[in-house]
């Protein structure tokens, strides 16, 4: 067995199993929790995807970058523009779909990562932070510059059909009536009953094929990714001011507030999964969003795991800790930094593509400096150089605002206080972590466990 | 007189100085010699207040120095010229000198300023130039001049000969010796180049691995056969 | 051509404000080798304080004094409580800590004063001056702004070159150990540097507020402009920060004049990227410590 572990592919298999296990567990969770939790799950997975890249760039490679929000914007806009404007992939007869759009987003991430990386590789500390700060502020501003293409300040809505059939309503859903948004166009509606059971993995072949043209290019067994879904109410995004830190309560929460929606709203009876207007509502938007985000996060996590724990991870750490020594050992510090930039921007682009699908919207307001700052907050709190820390940070980013909201409800806080309390806590926590526990939650736990083991070893 | 009693310093688990005791009388040059890593620079930095000792104490004419910060130790009369020609390269010669002893009265500082120019005429010629345009020897003179501006009762010199031509080293050390006797200050001189140091010093101690292994008059130590082989390499 | 000159002149006022904010960044950089990304957050906070004082007393001048005092205190607090304890080796930590302060200050301001944009009263005439038979692209207020910037720059220059405190601050910036061994109380000097930066930032905040409006995030873009100016100016150079700050203001004014003001951030970004790619040490800088 030990010999087996030494085989070249062994670590790859180990990581693949780990990622697959994480995916399976998350998909089980995805199938068993309610819409709101699934929505949070989607956000957490999306944040984690971007933050895996931040761990590599900021933690391992030691470059404090605020560019991730802007790179998410690039991924998001590429996804939106390609799905909105292309029926087929140009110069081919391959029909566009969400998978291709994600791929284009990733390619965009490589290109922009290379450009920013080449600019940033020579820079250290504050210079890099400042340059990426400029990018974080400047790139969303470009969207304002070209309203024709990018939709300007108001952004673009995604209105591509989402998968035919879809998810069943959650079996354990409470008896009370819940409300969801429906697409306005009839042909975008799911037409068949759900064939996938709660907890089933989402693949294209467990979707009922009532309307085969809705999933034209997905082969049976393919992981389902973005084939889009009804657009959220664009006016909900108005509550997100440019530069605001995005939190859960600043997101337009689809399906939660019928008053805010200008779209058709149907009251559902969860026991039948049928709307009052007689349309079948087996498709549960939040579960689909979560399954998409989880799939992307697991794939990206698998890649990140291989990079971090492999040769490249050692190279990044070596350059971070002592660039001169690394250079003397034949490693190119600049090359290693550019690589870190490219990897992290591909991850950020993919996260951005997932993000716009969760929002059903893309616009400069969603990708402001606030998003970049919250990603930085997340990895610092979780643990700057740990992938597990990124996941913990992502959970914190989504959970804390909800926690504060609950607390505020109990205590009857002013809205002004409630809305700003999460960021105040984030800011103070970041300072505290830097001063007291630079390793974040994961680093501190590791140190603690290490100390306990040492003590038992000594006494034993 | 500078008195060091039982001084110990740790860097993490590494014992840099272990129970060092030493007296540096006024009017004399006392040399500390020893190999690389013997703890010579640590001793100097501890005396100047840059490093906290673990135990033991140092005092100047009865005033306890240990436990005070570097900026206070220099006000109490102990000035360190650290290793490597420590000047502020971005400032001019004049500014480097003015930096020393800013807490003193304007008149006192002007007087010392003039004395330093008397002692090191080359600095007077270069007073408007940035320190990084000076030669190595000139910068060492500037570093000593800056320390003298603090009106020290005790001068700590850490490897003043480092990287300088032998002739310049001799000049500087002769000047230091004259300074000690004329102004009646205590001078503690750290040198790796033991032969040079013993030539100007009155007394000397030998440090090895943080401990004083021998002390005596400079000539005694210079003629000690065993020691010459073990520590002086000649 | 006249139009071009008008755009250039029209940029002097905003350029002076960028110059002041850049100056604040340079002051903290010189003092502690930290770029204080929270600087605009501090300025935003003190400007809100000034607005409250103004509402209370009705006096623009008392409000300005209040902002200056608050700026100094806030600078001292941030330096003393946040940056002094950061380990010297942890440069990433210092940068992250300043962003933490920025986030916390913006949230605190939102809590106290709300997230909406608020108008800041205009103390002087903001209409174009008519002189020699034509309208100039400058207002009395622009001249006041330029005047304040000029006084601060001259004052700081005198402080740095003529006083013992200035000498201590320069020595501490370049070589803290030698400064300490010379008897300079380094900790106190650094804190004074941050207080000064806080004052300069506070003045910039109060001066910029009437021309736009003030909200917790409204100075973010000023940070980008000021950072651009400070870096191109060499980060260590007061003259560089002022010259490039005004220069940035002029360029942005011309760009906005001929195209659209929403181009300004992109132009600043391009300038910054070009500078960092071609001459990373800045125009007035002489250290090469910024690249590996």
Q: What report would you give on this structure?
A:
The complex is a heterotrimer of chains A (460), B (234) and C (292). Chain A has 15 helices and 5 strands. With 460 residues, chain A is mainly alpha-helical. Chain A folds into 2 domains: 13-163 and 284-365, no CATH class; 164-282, no CATH class. In chain A, a hairpin with a 4-residue loop joins β3 (265-269) and β4 (274-275). In chain A, α2 (10-32) runs antiparallel to α8 (285-308), α4 (68-85) packs parallel to α6 and α8 runs antiparallel to α11 (333-359). The longest helix of chain A is centred in the C-terminal third of the chain and has 27 residues, at 333-359. Chain B is an alpha/beta fold and 234 residues long. A 6-stranded mixed beta sheet of chain B has the order 6-7-8-3-9-10, sandwiched between helices. A 4-stranded antiparallel beta sheet of chain B has the order 2-1-4-5, covered by helices on one side. In chain B, α3 (93-99) packs parallel to α6 (136-148). Chain C is mainly alpha-helical and 292 residues long. Chain C has one domain (2-111, 147-278). Chain C is 72% helix and 3% strand. Chain C has helices at residues 2-32, 39-57, 60-83, 91-113, 140-162, 164-174, 176-181, 186-208, 220-233, 238-258, 264-278, and strands at residues 128-131, 134-139. In chain C, α1 runs antiparallel to α10 (238-258).
What's the gist of this structure?
Chain A is 58% helix and 3% strand. Chain A has 460 residues and is mainly alpha-helical. In chain A, a hairpin with a 4-residue loop joins strand 3 (265-269) and strand 4.
List strands and helices in order, with pairings:
The complex is a heterotrimer of chains A (460), B (234) and C (292).
Chain A (H helix, E strand, L loop, with lengths): L1 H5 L3 H23 L2 H26 L7 H18 L12 H23 L4 H21 L1 H4 L5 E2 L20 E4 L83 E5 L4 E2 L9 H24 L2 H11 L1 H6 L4 H27 L1 E2 L6 H14 L4 H25 L3 H22 L3 H20 L1
Antiparallel strand pairs in A: 1-5, 2-3, 3-4
Helix pairs in contact in A: 2-8, 3-8, 3-11, 3-12, 3-13, 4-5, 4-6, 4-11, 5-11, 8-11, 9-11, 12-13, 12-14, 12-15, 13-14
Chain B lengths: L1 E10 L2 E11 L4 E5 L6 H9 L6 E6 L2 E2 L5 H6 L2 E4 L11 H7 L6 H14 L1 H5 L10 H13 L5 E5 L7 H18 L2 E6 L2 H7 L2 E6 L2 E7 H6 L1 H8 L2
Parallel strand pairs in B: 3-8, 3-9, 6-7, 7-8
Antiparallel strand pairs in B: 1-2, 1-4, 4-5, 9-10
Helix pairs in contact in B: 3-6
Chain C lengths: L1 H31 L6 H19 L2 H24 L7 H23 L14 E4 L2 E6 H23 L1 H11 L1 H6 L4 H23 L11 H14 L4 H21 L5 H15 L14
Antiparallel strand pairs in C: 1-2
């Amino acid at each position: 067995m030990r010999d087996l572990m030494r085989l070249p592919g062994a670590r790859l298999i180990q990581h693949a199993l780990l990622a697959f296990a994480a995916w399976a567990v998350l998909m089980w969770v995805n199938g068993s929790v309610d819409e709101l939790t699934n929505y949070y799950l989607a956000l957490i997975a999306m944040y984690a995807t971007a933050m895996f890249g931040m761990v590599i760039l900021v933690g391992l490679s030691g470059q404090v970058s605020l560019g991730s929000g802007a790179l998410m914007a690039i991924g998001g806009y590429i996804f939106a523009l390609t799905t909105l404007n292309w029926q087929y992939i140009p110069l081919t007869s391959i029909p566009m779909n969400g998978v291709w759009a994600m791929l284009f987003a990733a390619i965009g991430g490589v290109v922009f990562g290379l450009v920013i990386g080449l600019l940033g590789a020579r820079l250290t500390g504050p210079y890099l932070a400042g340059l990426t700060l400029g990018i974080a502020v400047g790139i969303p501003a470009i969207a304002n510059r070209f309203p024709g293409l990018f939709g300007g300040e108001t952004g673009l809505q995604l209105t591509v059909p989402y998968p035919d059939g879809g998810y069943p309503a959650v079996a354990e859903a409470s008896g009370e009536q819940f409300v969801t948004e429906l697409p306005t166009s009839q042909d975008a509606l799911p037409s068949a009953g759900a064939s996938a059971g709660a907890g089933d993995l989402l693949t294209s072949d467990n979707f009922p094929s009532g309307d085969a043209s809705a999933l034209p290019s997905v082969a049976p067994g393919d992981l389902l990714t973005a084939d889009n879904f009804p657009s959220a109410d664009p006016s909900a995004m108005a509550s997100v001011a440019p530069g605001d830190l995005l939190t859960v309560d600043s997101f337009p929460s689809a399906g939660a507030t019928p008053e805010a929606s200008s779209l058709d709203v149907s009251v559902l009876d969860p026991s039948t999964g049928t709307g009052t207007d007689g349309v079948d509502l087996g498709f549960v938007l939040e579960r689909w969003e979560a399954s998409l985000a989880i799939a992307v996060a697991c794939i990206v996590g698998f890649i990140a795991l291989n990079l971090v724990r492999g040769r490249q991870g050692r190279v990044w750490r070596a350059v971070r800790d002592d660039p001169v020594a690394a250079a003397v050992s034949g490693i190119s510090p600049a090359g290693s930094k550019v690589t870190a930039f490219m990897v992290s921007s591909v991850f950020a682009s993919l996260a951005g593509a997932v993000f716009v699908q969760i929002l059903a919207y893309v616009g400069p307001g969603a990708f402001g400096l606030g998003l970049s700052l919250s990603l930085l907050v997340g990895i610092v709190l979780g643990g700057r150089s740990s992938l597990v820390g990124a996941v913990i940070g992502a959970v914190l980013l989504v959970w804390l605002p909800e926690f504060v909201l609950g607390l505020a409800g109990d205590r009857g806080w002013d809205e002004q206080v409630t809305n700003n309390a999460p960021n105040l806590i984030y800011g103070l926590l970041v300072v505290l972590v830097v001063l007291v526990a630079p390793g974040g939650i994961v680093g501190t736990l590791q140190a603690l466990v290490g100390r306990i083991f040492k003590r038992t070893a000594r006494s034993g | 007189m500078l008195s060091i009693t039982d001084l110990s310093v740790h860097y993490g688990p590494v014992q840099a100085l272990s129970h060092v005791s030493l007296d540096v009388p006024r009017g004399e040059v006392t040399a500390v010699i020893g190999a690389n890593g013997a703890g010579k620079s640590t001793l100097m930095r501890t005396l100047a207040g840059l490093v906290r000792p673990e135990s033991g104490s140092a005092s100047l004419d009865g005033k306890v120095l240990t436990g005070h910060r570097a900026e206070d130790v220099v006000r109490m009369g102990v000035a360190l010229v650290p290793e490597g020609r420590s000047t502020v390269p971005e400032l001019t010669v004049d500014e480097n000198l003015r930096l020393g002893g800013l807490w003193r009265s304007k008149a006192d500082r002007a007087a010392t300023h003039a004395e330093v120019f008397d002692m090191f005429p080359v600095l007077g010629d270069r007073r408007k130039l940035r320190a990084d345009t000076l030669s190595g020897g000139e910068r060492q003179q500037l570093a000593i001049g800056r320390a003298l501006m603090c009106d020290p009762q005790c001068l700590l010199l850490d490897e003043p000969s480092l990287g300088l031509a032998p002739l310049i080293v001799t000049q500087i050390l002769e000047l230091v010796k004259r300074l000690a006797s004329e102004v009646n200050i205590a001078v503690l001189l750290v040198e790796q180049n033991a032969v040079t140091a013993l030539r100007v010093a009155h007394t000397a101690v030998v440090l090895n691995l943080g401990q004083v292994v021998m002390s005596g008059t400079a000539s005694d130590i210079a003629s000690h056969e065993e020691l010459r082989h073990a520590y002086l390499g000649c | 051509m006249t139009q071009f000159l008008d755009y250039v002149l029209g940029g002097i006022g905003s350029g002076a404000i960028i110059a002041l904010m850049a100056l604040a960044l340079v002051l903290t950089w010189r003092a502690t080798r930290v770029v204080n990304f929270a600087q605009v957050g501090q300025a935003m906070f003190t400007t809100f304080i000034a607005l409250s004082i103004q509402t209370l007393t009705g006096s623009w001048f008392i409000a300005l004094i209040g902002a200056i005092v608050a700026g100094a205190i806030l600078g001292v607090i941030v330096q003393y409580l946040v940056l002094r304890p950061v380990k010297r080796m942890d440069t990433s930590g210092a940068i992250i800590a300043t962003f933490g302060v920025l986030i916390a200050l913006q949230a605190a301001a939102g809590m106290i004063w709300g997230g909406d944009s608020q108008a800041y009263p205009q103390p002087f005439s903001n209409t174009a001056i008519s002189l020699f038979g034509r309208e100039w692209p400058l207002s009395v207020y622009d001249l006041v702004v330029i005047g304040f910037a000029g006084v601060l720059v001259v004052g700081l220059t005198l402080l740095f070159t003529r006083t013992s405190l200035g000498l201590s601050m320069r020595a501490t910036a370049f070589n803290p150990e030698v400064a300490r061994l010379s008897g300079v109380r380094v900790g106190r000097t650094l804190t004074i540097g941050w207080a000064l930066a806080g004052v300069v930032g506070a003045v910039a905040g109060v001066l910029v507020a009437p021309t736009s409006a003030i909200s917790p995030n409204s100075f973010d873009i000023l940070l980008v402009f000021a950072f651009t100016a400070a870096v191109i100016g060499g980060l260590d150079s007061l003259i560089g920060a002022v010259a490039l700050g005004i220069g940035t203001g002029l360029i942005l004014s011309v760009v906005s004049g001929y195209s659209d003001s929403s181009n300004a951030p992109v132009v600043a970004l391009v300038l910054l990227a070009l500078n960092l790619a071609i001459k990373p040490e800045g125009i007035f800088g002489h250290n090469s410590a910024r690249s590996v």
